[in-house]
TrEMBL record, chains A, B, C:
<feature type="transmembrane region" description="Helical">
    <location>
        <begin position="297"/>
        <end position="314"/>
    </location>
</feature>
<feature type="transmembrane region" description="Helical">
    <location>
        <begin position="148"/>
        <end position="168"/>
    </location>
</feature>
<dbReference type="Pfam" id="PF00909">
    <property type="entry name" value="Ammonium_transp"/>
</dbReference>
<feature type="transmembrane region" description="Helical">
    <location>
        <begin position="273"/>
        <end position="291"/>
    </location>
</feature>
<keyword id="KW-0812">Transmembrane</keyword>
<dbReference type="InterPro" id="IPR029020">
    <property type="entry name" value="Ammonium/urea_transptr"/>
</dbReference>
<keyword id="KW-1133">Transmembrane helix</keyword>
<feature type="transmembrane region" description="Helical">
    <location>
        <begin position="77"/>
        <end position="97"/>
    </location>
</feature>
<dbReference type="GO" id="GO:0005886">
    <property type="term" value="C:plasma membrane"/>
</dbReference>
<feature type="transmembrane region" description="Helical">
    <location>
        <begin position="203"/>
        <end position="223"/>
    </location>
</feature>
<dbReference type="InterPro" id="IPR024041">
    <property type="entry name" value="NH4_transpt_AmtB-like_dom"/>
</dbReference>
<dbReference type="GO" id="GO:0097272">
    <property type="term" value="P:ammonium homeostasis"/>
</dbReference>
<dbReference type="InterPro" id="IPR002229">
    <property type="entry name" value="RhesusRHD"/>
</dbReference>
<feature type="transmembrane region" description="Helical">
    <location>
        <begin position="174"/>
        <end position="191"/>
    </location>
</feature>
<feature type="transmembrane region" description="Helical">
    <location>
        <begin position="6"/>
        <end position="28"/>
    </location>
</feature>
<feature type="transmembrane region" description="Helical">
    <location>
        <begin position="117"/>
        <end position="136"/>
    </location>
</feature>
<feature type="domain" description="Ammonium transporter AmtB-like">
    <location>
        <begin position="40"/>
        <end position="422"/>
    </location>
</feature>
Amino acid sequence: MEPRIKTAFALGLVEGILLILFGVCVTFDRPMQPRHVTAAQEESNEATFNRFYPMFEDVHVMVYVGFGYLMTFLRRFGYSAVGNTLLQSAIVLQWAVIMRGIWRVHGAKIPLDMESLLGAEFSAVTFLISFGALLGKTSLIQNAMIGIMETAIGAGNEYLGVVVLQAVDPGGSIFLHTFGAYFGLAVAFVTHKKDHVGNRNEGSSYISDVFSMIGTLFLWLYWPSFNAATVRGAERHRAVINTYLALTASCLTAFAASSCLDGRGRLDMVHIQNSTLAGGVAIGSIASILAEPHSAIIVGSLAGTISVLGYKFISPFLARRWSVHDTCGVHNLHGMPGVLAGISSIILAATTSHQSHGDSLFSVYPARASVLFNVTDGHGFNVTYGLNRSAGEQAAFQLWALLATLSIAISGGVATGLLIRLECFEPVDVQDAFDDGVAWNVAGPEMPTFVEVKPRVSSPPRRPQIRFKNRVMSILRETRVQAP
Amino acid sequence: MEPRIKTAFALGLVEGILLILFGVCVTFDRPMQPRHVTAAQEESNEATFNRFYPMFEDVHVMVYVGFGYLMTFLRRFGYSAVGNTLLQSAIVLQWAVIMRGIWRVHGAKIPLDMESLLGAEFSAVTFLISFGALLGKTSLIQNAMIGIMETAIGAGNEYLGVVVLQAVDPGGSIFLHTFGAYFGLAVAFVTHKKDHVGNRNEGSSYISDVFSMIGTLFLWLYWPSFNAATVRGAERHRAVINTYLALTASCLTAFAASSCLDGRGRLDMVHIQNSTLAGGVAIGSIASILAEPHSAIIVGSLAGTISVLGYKFISPFLARRWSVHDTCGVHNLHGMPGVLAGISSIILAATTSHQSHGDSLFSVYPARASVLFNVTDGHGFNVTYGLNRSAGEQAAFQLWALLATLSIAISGGVATGLLIRLECFEPVDVQDAFDDGVAWNVAGPEMPTFVEVKPRVSSPPRRPQIRFKNRVMSILRETRVQAP
Amino acid sequence: MEPRIKTAFALGLVEGILLILFGVCVTFDRPMQPRHVTAAQEESNEATFNRFYPMFEDVHVMVYVGFGYLMTFLRRFGYSAVGNTLLQSAIVLQWAVIMRGIWRVHGAKIPLDMESLLGAEFSAVTFLISFGALLGKTSLIQNAMIGIMETAIGAGNEYLGVVVLQAVDPGGSIFLHTFGAYFGLAVAFVTHKKDHVGNRNEGSSYISDVFSMIGTLFLWLYWPSFNAATVRGAERHRAVINTYLALTASCLTAFAASSCLDGRGRLDMVHIQNSTLAGGVAIGSIASILAEPHSAIIVGSLAGTISVLGYKFISPFLARRWSVHDTCGVHNLHGMPGVLAGISSIILAATTSHQSHGDSLFSVYPARASVLFNVTDGHGFNVTYGLNRSAGEQAAFQLWALLATLSIAISGGVATGLLIRLECFEPVDVQDAFDDGVAWNVAGPEMPTFVEVKPRVSSPPRRPQIRFKNRVMSILRETRVQAP
């Protein structure tokens, strides 16, 4: 099939299937259906709407302007960064309504309301984190397939964690950030080609870095809404303030660490664009629960430091030794801080007591209540709570949720990576990597106004040793359909 | 008069007249007047404020950042795109308070509240759509005159449609988008010069295209607020969700169509910047009414496809054969999708029944109610409803409103175009078109860091045939004051 | 100490001290503490949250995207503009919670809620205004010290004005804008080096100017929230509308004045980026009080004009004759319009009567009430009102507040300037001014894709006469610790 037909066909097919699924399975939540609108319903409609809409819009801006512009740092890949964010998120948003909705069907159809849309944004965030690890190395059709797979698997994992294990993660640091990061890294591992490392196109320019900071700022500014959107009342209030403090703290420590790691004490734009945000990830699982604001500063400070260290030492190591090339460094911004969030949530669950939290203990950890009750939680699932868990039990379930997320993300990512290596998903040739000219009608020669500053992942002077990869690859070879 | 004095004088005169008009005709709405504030009024003040302010701010961002940056795609016209958006909208916003207010005067003066400001934003959107068709071809003073004329005529047309004809168009796709597009195209036709087509300055650069995407994203993100701002309760809730779905669908089909129309399956930035938004326009008239979300996906999918086809085939044709040069392609983003919205609203009006919508039928189509009642609608007009219309009658009035809008927009645009051709409005020489250097103090030689990518409207290899123009021009010649 | 260690050590020390202070002195406001959450508290939590959060987020965007991008106009200083805004504001935000909190301690600890965070943003704005005067001339460590000093002094000044003098300044034009501008100018004066004037790096490029307009627009768009965030009900409603009108008016007069001052009637990007915002500053002290909207247009028109005149005539004069080099021209955007706001507030206080404002007089000027009552005002202070002041007395106290602000800002700025001249704060060499290459790891040679347009402050053809500076400098010499 000609390329022009192929992309159009693939996207048309996806939209067609989505249309049919919406027609067959989805309808507005009952209070919004014109036929059922009454004065009493209107009040509840307005309350639900006002509870979610402003924060939904903030998260919406984070997804598109935040992630989209953050990824424009590559000097020859700005169109793709913003364009793919727009396209792929549009796919994920529709698909997520269905994939998340099937877990909360009450009657015949999936109910659609602002909560569904907020959940869909969460799925888009998860995908975009993975996309960050793969930026510049996958085709439009591959990305679409990744979005479809990841959204389905991620929604299942979230259901497992929130409903089955009743782990608590209001800001989604475990179910969204950790999941997205390790899923993306697994795909990157399976689709790795050694010439991705040290590629001459993989660098920023002065101007592309200033564009990228637009993304950083909008993520930084609206992150409190992200971590607070699923909770309410005092929990929402605390989630906003703790997130705000964690971000300011990670901002300071990221600058400090960045300066400290440069021979002449200069700052590195890569760290500032990313690691200043690590506090928002690390505080996500506990922001609404923490009773003392200084704890948020501790978590944020740690996250900023770890993230910069990751960019300096771990990313090059992963790229060289483990064949995991991570274009945006999502392991440093979402992976490690996400795991830190998970660990914090375990510690907090183990130490939170009725003495410290009063009756609101049962609101923040519903499974610790002794009475059975039903709520629709902020992630849109219908949960039966009240398991009379002890603090230690709750902590254990937080741990299981973290481990389950890591396992499902990595195995799901490996499976997805193997799938998209099929020729029909149009893998990108390594010489076309990180270059808009392949997928976009750009008059090539004029483009390099974007002047090179430096490669994002410092390329090693010598050829990478890929022994580990060789070993794993030989195992994978049998399952492989098409050699890279 | 010297140019320096002339622009300053014109703007000073406009602001002076506005000041006098505000002094004489405008005051705060009664509940906000300090003298009349009581505890009961305060509650109503807060309710009105909270109902409008968040969505007003979203629309405000759409107007300035959305439209302003969307138009920075021209590589030598970024200052003017953003600067003129700022200036001209500031004129329109003040003037619209008065021009829209005269239709809703209760007592001695025009009442001013958040609803007035939201209405003013709508007028600014209408102007900016027209401005998109004329970008790079008109002077600051011409633009001011267009804004003044269009705001007055557009407010009259909206009054006719909403109050007299009682057509329903909550997102303004008929009264704002269709009106603005055809008004602007009519002005473009009357002020056409053949060297506008294929002008060497009329192209984007890699960087200017990345700037332009800032505008696209903020329009895309806040469009649900735009379509939902004038309604409330379940209608607002549905308007947001349907707009969201239509935008995601038009996003997919725009990418698909763009890829399909390129010989090598590559994407065109022009389509991505614009056609991904077409779903928001096309769903505007019906977003709050639709009872099933999949209908929004159908409308959005159609809009994205039509819009890309328009950029590829219709815009070059209009420019060459019809002397309608449309710099931003507003015909493809606002014109045709606006007409599609109008047609959708006719079909929906004809098929909506008490059976499908229950009593909320009278809320979405007040003229279908049998009882007379008074409401202040979201556009700020005072309407008496209850005409006992049938579904067919309502559909017919939707059609009349669409046709009236098209006629008034085109005739108003022609009249305005003839007016601004007068020498006193300082028409722009064709060799100065699409160039910031004329109106801005830019050190010329250094500017072309912006490297050419491609002209926006593909220039024809041979001279355009302008037979139609010649014919119409000979008719217009008598009314003409100053030959181009 | 090595530079790499020094910056990291300084930032680590700051964060460490902040952490200890938060641990010892700060806790969540009682209704938010988990242990004290009850159903009744939840309602009050949600009300407080909803009252502040949306406007807080708007102000948050103004601080980071608004100020951050506004300052990217320098063609070689974009990293520093955005990066320093992010870092320094993160320091100020945490520190301000404590410095502002100590004036409102009720029990043992400083209570933390959304109001604290809004107040912290105000301190960040104050700092960023000063930072604008110093942009490109101070090091990261100097900036941190300025932020720490200014936040402490500014919070004290605000307490003096709002609580002791009971002056009324809802939008903070006196306590934030005027204070920040003159504080920054005083620091600039004390740290002046004559080669800052006419420096070859101090110019914009075409692209950096388009970046800068992102900042302008977000400031312009969210300014109504800034001026309205501390008030409520009808006052909030009026504050938004008056700010909106003042901004549109200052936009027109800034364009008019800019065009008028150019020999060929062309616009100057510097004026458009800044002076269009002057109306928001000038209306800040009275926006919520004004009873007639046309007054807002008058104030805005004046402000836009004064601001452009300042850029054209006063800034070059200050730089040459008074040794006050003001990189962003904050004197024109915040200084003079802030004083205009102060004068407006005096006039308004003198002319507002029970006849014009009814009982709401005591809400807008609580000190004029005859009964003693307690409120927590929007700035987060606990104020006892009811001093039975006459209109003239209130006007006099507005004047004292303005004069006190000017004196404290200038003397605080001089003291801070003398402090940061100490070698340990790492002053920037004059040849490194306005250059990202010093503090950032930028591959130097490639950077100048940013092409020079023009120096911001027009450099004089001849060497500046610095007689006044010489005179003052000889006075300061004795207090000086380290010659520049």
